[in-house]
Amino acid sequence: MLEFQLVESGALSFADRVAIAIRASVLGAVSTLFPSDDVTRAHLKAQGREPDWKAFAPPAADAESGLDVDFSDVEPAVGMPQGNGVLRLRDLGDAPVSAVWIGPEASLADLERIARVLQGARLPDSVDGVVTLGHRQLRESAARAGLLGALRAAGMRVELPLAMPRPRPGTGVGLACGAPGARGAGWHETGPVACAAAAIAAVVTDPRQPTLSVEDASVAESFVIDDRLLERPPSDAAAVDGARENGSWPKPFAITGPLRGAVLLKLGDHVGVDRILPWGARVRPVASDIERLADHLFAVVDPEFGARARAESQGWIVAGRELGHGRRREEIGLAAVMLGVRGMLARSFDPEFRRLLCQHGLLALRFGGDADAGTIELGDELEIPDLPEGLEQGKPLVVRNLTRGLQVAMHHDLNEAEVAAVRRGGLLATLRRDETAASSARSMSAMGA
């Protein structure tokens, strides 16, 4: 793990930190941590939550282990569509631009920068400009600051995030910023000022031109505070614990003995995250309710999967190659546990998806060959008898097909720490156990004192 210390305290705004955290997850980072400093405090104050702020900073880094990064030669970049790498923006030359999309992850500061670049200008008829506002507070704050009026005056359409716009094929480049999934839909992803400059010129434009220079955003920490639609958490700690126990949060399954269950679903090759749990208008509203969210797991592949899994109460999923490729989606593990899925057997896994299954206490077992994968069919009763003792680092597990009277050796690729986590039911169960042990130790210490 690398620790980066900024040369100037507070050099990154809160919005910039959020943008980095979002992009880091796309690149495979499990989490991103920034210090809780004056920048964090100012943001919480703007949200009416300054009393919630607590200072937190990492320990001083060893000078010999530091990494000096020189940003003086950094150029504006562009992410190519369909995940085809990243180029310098100038590598696109003066390619014509037919569409510009400011997506729902754009911050209030981004909208202000774009509005300043577009001030007094008008998009040409050949350019389709769309602004998708991510949430109600952003819309109301941008409206109060006059940003929405300025964007509309320049010819941008301001919309709610009902559907992803698409660039017009064959008419020019489509540039997007703050837009999740944009590259997969044919957009070129770049920064907000580059998008605004291209929208005016109708061609790819270097945002570092002196005429495009904009001052730091002045309304970025000026939010409309309206929390009337939020339900306040109970102040009684016991009530909170009771809600966690009785709510829709799935309880992890520790492996305490042999596992047995039916094959609930059999999939082919290259089943990605978007087919496992499609993240659209139907799924987003129930994202916080795992019980209802579980109904959408694999629904694109088999609409009856959820009902079948609940009826069986415990079972397996069998798949081909590259199961789970795509952007990490933590809800998949929670939904699978909720439905009683104990593991997935595949020809190969996306590495990040395999880690996700492990962290939720699910076995990710890999076939040794295509012939082994062909011996298991939908509905077959499978058993792993040698558990939990047989689950060891570097040791394959024997899976018995009780329906067909066969058995295959499966590989799990778990290291020692992952083996321990899966045995206990996943990372959350491990953390809960450790916290319970620590609490008991504190109580015993207090009694001894």
Model description:
The chain has about 450 residues and is an alpha/beta fold. Helix content is about 30%, strand content about 15%. The strands form three sheets. It has a seven-stranded mixed barrel. Strands 5-4-3-6-7 form a five-stranded parallel sheet. Strands 1-2 form a two-stranded antiparallel ribbon. Helix 3 (about 110-120) crosses helix 5 and helix 3 packs parallel to helix 6 (about 190-200). The longest helix is centred in the C-terminal third of the chain and has 22 residues, at about 425-449. It starts with 13 loop residues before the first helix and ends with a helix. Mean pLDDT is about 85; it is low at about 1-10.
What distinguishing features does this structure have?
about 15% strand; 14 strands; Aconitase, domain 4; globular; about 450 residues; disordered N terminus; 5-stranded parallel sheet; 15 helices; single chain; alpha/beta; 7-stranded mixed β-barrel; Aconitase, domain 3
Strand content: 5-15%
Number of helices: 15
CATH superfamily of the largest domain: Aconitase, domain 4
- Main beta sheet: strand number and arrangement? 7 strands, mixed, barrel
So what's the CATH class of the largest domain? Answer: Alpha Beta
- What's the number of extended β-strand segments? 14
- CATH topology of the largest domain, by name, is Aconitase, domain 4
The largest sheet has its strands arranged as 8-9-10-11-14-13-12
pLDDT under 50 segments (min length 5)? 1-9
Helix share, percent: 25-40%
* Rg (C-alpha, Å): 26 Å
Q: N-to-C SSE series?
A: HHEEEHEHHEEEHHEHHHEHEHEHEEEHH
**How many separate domains make up the residues?**
3
State the separation between the terminal residues, measured CA to CA: 39 Å
Estimated structural class: alpha/beta
What gross morphology would you assign?
globular
The CATH architecture of the largest domain comes to: Alpha-Beta Barrel
